[in-house]
Amino acid sequence: MFCTKAGKAIVSRQFVEMTRTRIEGLLAAFPKLMNTGKQHTFVETESVRYVYQPMEKLYMVLITTKNSNILEDLETLRLFSRVIPEYCRALEENEISEHCFDLIFAFDEIVALGYRENVNLAQIRTFTEMDSHEEKVFRAVRETQEREAKAEMRRKAKELQQARRDAERQGKKAPGFGGFGMYHHALYYYYYFFF
Predict the structure, then answer these.
(1) What is the widest separation between alpha-carbon atoms in the chain?
(2) CA-CA distance, 62 to 44, in Å (whole number)?
(3) Burial code of 149-165, b = ≥16 C-beta within 10 A, e = fewer?
(4) Domain boundaries, the chain
(5) How confident is the model at residue 184 (pLDDT cuts 50, 70, 90)?
(6) Nearest partner of 10 among 78, 107, 79, 76, judged by Cα
(7) Burial class (CB in 10 A: 0-12, 13-18, 19+), 134
(8) Confidence of residue 9 (pLDDT cuts 50, 70, 90)
(9) 32-58 confidence digits (pLDDT tens)
(10) 11 has which bridge partners?
(11) Which of 29, 33, 94, 100 has the smallest CB count inside 10 Å?
């Protein structure tokens, strides 16, 4: 997750079930733990481990269980931090907020169901940019349906124009959009007949 030095979450992604209140509580505790003056990139409490990396005015923070592999956690954190420049031009709160969904999709490629995937930066880029075959087929079908609907509308419009011209030549009322016509009377008689 990305947070400010005050502990305000900018982007947060949970890979295990956790309530919002719990996350906010963990984030609120993080800045207080940072004031210990240690030079490490992790801090432990009774229940969790914060693995973090300062990034200008922000922190990239992974919150893990205390029994997780610290070396794997640090490697995961490095990969998370390498993903950020792929989507954000600057490490600023508004830039990260603007690209939050791209970042979350990339994070999902790194960790699945709480476990780190064996991927590198190039694979993450490929996976997030990749269009699925089903999506391409869906788009093609939708575009074909739209083209067919437009062609049908043009054909119907031409038929109506031709019918109007023919009616004008014969001196009759043009068919189409005028009033209720016979339909109104048929409904009236239907209503009257059964009630």
Answers:
(1) 96
(2) 12
(3) eeeeeeeeeeeeeeeee
(4) 2-129, 133-194
(5) very low
(6) 107
(7) exposed
(8) confident
(9) 887 655 556 888 888 899 888 888 888
(10) 2
(11) 94
Domain 2-129 fold is Beta-Lactamase (3.30.450)
pTM as predicted: 0.59
Pairing of strands 111-112, 115-116: antiparallel
Comparing CA positions, the residue from 31, 26, 25, 41 lying closest to residue 6 is 31
Express each pLDDT in 95-107 by its tens digit. Answer: 888 888 888 888 8
Summarised one tens digit per residue, pLDDT across range 155-168 is 999 999 999 998 88
Looking at residue 13, the DSSP 8-state letter turns out to be -
Distances in Å between the alpha carbon of 111 and those of 37, 73, 103, 144? 30, 11, 12, 38
Alpha-carbon separation of residue 151 from 2, 98, 146 (angstroms):
50, 40, 9
Write down how long the chain is.
195
Contact of 52 with 41, CB cutoff 8 Å: yes
